[in-house]
Amino acid sequence: MTRLQVLQTCLYASVFVISSVNAFAPNVKPTFSSSSQLTATLAENIVTPKGSDNDWEVHKFGGASLATAELYKTVGDLLIAEASGSKNDRSGGVAVPTMAIVSARGGMTDLLVQVVDSALVDFEEAKKVLNEAVEGQIKLLSELAPLEITAKIEANIRNDANDILLLVQSLRMINTVPSVTMEVVSGYGEIWSAQTLNAYLQTKNIPCDWIDARPILMVKSDSSGLGEKGAAATGGVLPLWDETAIRLKNWWNTVGHDKGMIDCDYKSGQSPIVVVTGFVASTIDGVPTTLKRSGSDYSATIFAKLLGASRVTMWKNTDGVYTADPRRVPEAFSIGSLKYDEALELAYFGAQVLHPSAMVPCIEDNIPVYVRNIFNPEFPGTVVQGRSPTLKETALTTKSTNWRANKGVIPIKGITSVDKVALVTLEGASTIGGSNVAEKFMGAMADNDINVLIITQASSESSICVAVPENEGDKAIAALQSSFELELARSTVGSLNLNKGMSIVAIIGEGMAYASGISSTFMGSLSRANVNIRLIAQGSSERQIAVVVKQADTTRALRAAHMGFTLSDTAASISIIGSTGSIGKAFVEQLSTQRRTLIDELGVCPRIMITANTKKMAIAKDSRGLPIDAINEQLEKDEVVDADLEKLTAEIEADVNPHRVIIDCTNSKAVSEYYGRWLSEGIDVISPSRKLLAGPLAEYKRVTQIQKNNIANWQYETSVGSALPILTTVRDLIETGDKVHKIRGSLSGTMSYVLSTFDEDTPFSKALEQAVEMGFAENDIREDTSGIDMAGKVVIIARQIGMDIELGDVEVESFLTDDLAANEDLKPKDLESIDEIMLERLQKAKADDRVLRYKFEIVKETGKCRCFLDAVDNTDPLFRLKSIENLIAFETDRYAASPLIVKGAAAGPELAASGIFADLLRLTRGYSTERP
C-alpha cells in the first residue's frame, strides 16, 4: 500500500465516523451549556412518551452481564418484565418506557484494544484477534435470533471489521497509535452489543430499536485515550446537554416514530425499549471519543437526565453496594441506602460498583440510582439518593457525642481500599518556607499530570507526603527532583523518598460527622490486627478517614475495621496444636459445648482453621473453618497433611483475619521455639507449656519483649495451677502497687494427690499409679517425682515478680534416686524401692500431728527459691489441702498480718482445659472491647 493509499484510508475512516455522527443534528451549533442547571433548551427537548403515566426508567448492563447468549437473554427478559410493569412495583402495573444502556460483551473491549496494539508490530496477529472478536459476537448473535433478523446485523459487524482493519493498517506507516484511533476501535464493542441485544428483543415482538450514541451524545473532552480501568474520573468529559437533548429528540421523532414506539398502548402492557450504546460519544466537531473506562455508568445517568427519568438501575453481579469487598471480607453485606456524597467517597476510594462521575447528573436532578443484582433481581439492592448535610448544617442540628452512645447505630456505611499506591515524601525543607514548598511540590505534580490521592504536610521541617498511583510514583519523583534541583544541591531539601507496595484503606459514612471515637475505633482495630499505618488523612466533611498501609496488610486491615465497627461479628481464627492429647481433647470438647458463650456474650465467633497433633494436621479450606464439633475427626480424613510447624506457621501468617490465635496444648520444646515468631506477626498464643516460660532466661526475656513490641497477647495462666487465677493475682498485686515479699504453697496436683492418698495400706508407688490413671500426672512421671514440674512453676511465678532466675537456681528436693531419675521409661511400679522410706516419713509426721506436703517457697528479698517435702502442722494453710488441690499464699505489704490465699482444684486435663478456655475468654474479650 502506498503512502497516498494509507492517507486515504485514514481520511475515509475519519469521514465515515464524522458523517455518521452528524446524521441526526447537522445544523446544531456548539454551545457549551452547563449541567448544573436545567436549561430551557434541555427542558423543551426532554423526551416524554405520549400516553404514558410513568416516566422513563433507565437500566445499565455491564460486560459481565453480557458475556454469553444466555446472559443476553436474561437481560432481555428482565427488560421486558420491567417495561411491562409486571415486575415493577413502582409502575402500578402499567407499562414503563424503558431505556437500556449496554457495555460491550465481556472481554470485547480488551480484544479490540489488543487489535490496535498488535497492529504496530504484527498485523497478522491484529487480524487474528479481530476475527476472534467478530466471530465470537456473530456466534452469540446467531443463538439469539433467526437469520431474518441477524443477517443485517452480521453484515454491519463485518463491515465494521473491514473499517477497523483499514484504520489500524495505516498505523504501521505512522508507527504510533493516535488516541482517536483507539477510541474509535474500542467503541465498536458497545455498537455490536447494542445491536445484539436489540435482535433478541425483536424476537419478542415489542416496539424496540437501538441507538448508536455517537451521533447523539455530544461531549466536551479535555483528555484523550481510554483511561485506566477502574479509574475514579472520566478525564474531564462533560456532556453538551442542549445539543444532545436536541439530537435525542430528533431521533425519537423520526426513528422512534417509524418503529412504532411513540404511540404505545401502555395500559395494555406495551412499552418501548430503546437500547443505547454506553461508553461512546463524540465531540461537537464530529470527532469520536469515549467516556473512558467504566464510563457506561456515566452514559446511563446522562441519558437519565436527558429523559427526565424517574430512576436509574445499575445491574451488577452483586446484591448492591457492599459494606466492603466481599472477596476480601466474607462477612460484608449489602447496604440498603446511601447518600450521593457517601457513594462518591466510596467510589473515589476504590469501591468499583459505582463510577464517581456517574453520580453527577443524578445529583443535580435528584434521580435515585439503584444498584441491583441481575442474577438475583428480587433482591432490592442499594438505592443512592439525597445529599448529606454540610458540616455547618450538622453542627447546627447535632451535638457531638461518642458514636457508641447511639446504641445500634453504626456511623459508617462502608470500608474500601485503593491498591497499588505509592508514597512520595519530601523531607527536611525547613529553610525554604512551608508555603513555598507546598506550592512548588503540588505544582510539580500538576505540571506532570500526576494524580494526587492524599496529601499530608507536617509543620516541622516542611515535610510533605502524598499518595499517588503506584505506576506514577517514579514519574512523581522525577518531577520533584527537577523542580527542587537547586534545593537538593544546596541540601536545603533533605531527601525525596518513594515507597511502593502501599494501599489506601478508608472508612466512609455521613454518621461520622460530629461523632467522637470514630478514629480511635478505626486505629485501634488496625493496631490490634498488627497493621502499621504510614499516613492518615481525614476529609474536611468528616465523612471519611483514610490511612495508607502496606498492600500485603490491606485485607487484614479491611476485616479488622469491619469487625471494629461491628459491621460483622468478630471472628477469631484458632489453630489448635496437640488437639488429640488429654488436655487438647478436653479443650476441644469444652470449646464445642461452650462456643455460644463466646458468640452470645462477647460477640466473637471462634473458627478452627488448623488442628494438629505430632503426626498430622488438618487445614480449613475456607474462612468458615473446620467443623467445631468434629475437629479431631478431621485428622482421620484423606485431606490431612504431615505435621510441619513451618507449613502451619505459613498458613497462619497468610490468614487475613486480624484476630489469630494459636493454642498450644503440648509440652513440646520444638513448638515453644515458634512463640517468638508467632508473636512478632501479631498472632496471639495461649499455652499451658512451661518450656519457654521456665526455660533459659535470655530467651524468655527476648520473647516477652517481642510480645510487648507487637501488642500481641501471650496467655499462659494454665502453666501454673491449671484453672486457678494465680498469675492473674500476681499481676493484680504488682499493678496495684503492692510489694510481694514471700510466696509459698503447693503447686503439684500429682503430689497433692499422692501425699494425701498413700498410707500403710496404699504404698507411695500405688498412689502414684492411681494419679497416673486419673490423668493427674505428666506424661513423664519423673517431672512430678523429681520436683522439676513444681520448680518450673516456681520460676514462672518468680519471674512475674521481677526475679531473674533460671531453673537451676531453684533448690529442689527429689523423691528419686539417681538410678530412678536416669530411667527414661520410669513407671510408678519402679518406685516401690522408695515405698518404705516414704512410709517412715509419713509415720513420723503423723506422730507429731503433722501431714506431708510437697511445698515451695519464693523469698523476694533473698532471691531464694526452693521445692521440698515438709511435714506441716495445723497452723499451715497446706495442712487441710485436699487430694486434688493446689494452694498458694502471698505475703505482701497489704497482706502482712494474714496472707492472701488462692486455693482450689487443679489436677486433671478437664481443669487445665477450662483454664485454657478462660484464657481464650480473656483474649477474645479484648477483641470485642470496641462493641457498642
Automatic annotation (TrEMBL):
A Gene Ontology annotation in the biological process aspect, one of them, is: threonine biosynthetic process
The identity of this protein, by name, is: Bifunctional aspartokinase/homoserine dehydrogenase
Gene3D superfamilies, alphabetized: Acetylglutamate kinase-like, Dihydrodipicolinate Reductase, domain 2, NAD(P)-binding Rossmann-like Domain, VC0802-like
The family assignment reads:
In the N-terminal section; belongs to the aspartokinase family. In the C-terminal section; belongs to the homoserine dehydrogenase family.
Per the record's keyword annotation, is Mitochondrion included, yes or no?
A: no
Signal peptide segment? 1-23
Q: Which SUPFAM superfamilies match?
A: ACT-like, Carbamate kinase-like, Glyceraldehyde-3-phosphate dehydrogenase-like, C-terminal domain, NAD(P)-binding Rossmann-fold domains
- Native species: Fragilariopsis cylindrus CCMP1102
Q: Which reaction does it catalyse?
A: L-homoserine + NADP(+) = L-aspartate 4-semialdehyde + NADPH + H(+); L-aspartate + ATP = 4-phospho-L-aspartate + ADP
**In UniProt terms, what function does this protein have?**
Bifunctional aspartate kinase and homoserine dehydrogenase that catalyzes the first and the third steps toward the synthesis of lysine, methionine and threonine from aspartate.
Q: Which domain of life, per UniProt? A: Eukaryota
